[in-house]
Amino acid sequence: RPTGVKRAKSSILKNDPSKKPCTATANMVAKFTRLILLQSNAINSLHVMLRDKRSTHVQFKKYADRLMRILAEEALAACTVEFSIVWTPTGAEFSGLRPNSNICAVSIVRAGDALLEQVLMCEPAVSVGKILIQRDESTAEKLPIVYYAKLPPRMSAFERVLLLDPMLATGGSVMKAIQLLLDAGVAERDIIFANVLSCPQGLESVFQAYSQIRVVTTAIDPELNENKYIVPGLGDYGDRYYNTT
Ligand code: URA
Q1: Torsion angles phi and psi, residue 229, rounded to 5
Q2: How much is the pTM?
Q3: Which terms in the Gene Ontology molecular function aspect does this entry carry (predicted)?
Q4: Among 67, 156, 171, 233, which is disulfide-ready with 185 (CB 3.0 to 4.6 Å)?
Q5: How high is the ipTM of this complex?
Q6: 242 lines ligand 1 (CB under 6 A)
Q7: pLDDT at 20
């Protein structure tokens, strides 16, 4: 058995990860009503593989894709607008929110493209937008700059806009992207930001600037380090996913 791997006691195997949220997580969930934190045993064990620094590129990609598929389904579920009652083949009624395909999925290149792929696997016909934002390393503040943006015309006609970026660190890039969507006519409350891993600093900044958006995430880690990486985190998502380390 590799170092650091222990056999789980049956009490841990039965454990529900949502029972013991860490303080940062609990504080964020209590503070922001438009924050949706996804929690399940599947999500927890996929996170173990993503966060393990020994995971190879192939392993990282496999588990990231599985986790992002869950995230994509939940983010799409957050885009629903229509309640529907249907009849099942047994003659009984079933009710719920009907999947909505009048949406636009906008990825923040490059890591957001991996999440976009999972959204398109679920809903192949959605319209797609792309935004490339990078930090200007020449300024002390390292301000994010929009290098490229291609959005469909008439953005306000979509019922929901899904903004996709797996990591929410300082929030600089996603705030720039949200502003771009607003400038294109999207209503703030129609924006749903889907991300794999967030942290309090990023959530605070984003919700302070844009209180009407919704955020769907699969984990909230406590802090950022001096290089603005999320801790404990998982390293650079794009580099690990695309094998460019
Ligand atoms: N982007 C990443 O890929 N990782 C972090 O920890 C923060 C931002």
Answers
A1: -95, 145
A2: 0.92
A3: GTP binding; uracil phosphoribosyltransferase activity
A4: 156
A5: 0.96
A6: no
A7: 59
Given a cut of 50, the residues of the chain with pLDDT beneath it are none
Q: Which residues are catalytic?
A: 135, 139, 236, 239
Shortest-distance atom of ligand 1 to CA 234 = 6
Gap between the Cα atoms of 126 and 194, Å rounded: 16
pLDDT of residue 245: 87
Q: Under a CB-based contact definition with an 8 Å cutoff, are residues 169 and 224 in contact?
A: yes
pLDDT of residue 37: 98
Residue having the nearest C-alpha atom to atom 3 of ligand 1: 236
- Residue 213, ligand 1, Cβ within 6 A: no
Question: In angstroms, rounded to a whole number, what is the distance separating the alpha carbons of residues 32 and 146?
Answer: 28
Q: Give the residue among 124, 116, 129, 125 at the shortest CA–CA distance from 69.
A: 116
Tokens of 18: 């949502």
Q: State whether the beta carbon of 188 lies less than 6 angstroms from ligand 1.
A: no
Whose CA is closest to atom 7 on ligand 1? Answer: 229
**Where are any strands of DSSP class E within 114-241?**
127-135, 144-150, 160-164, 191-195, 214-217, 223-224, 230-231
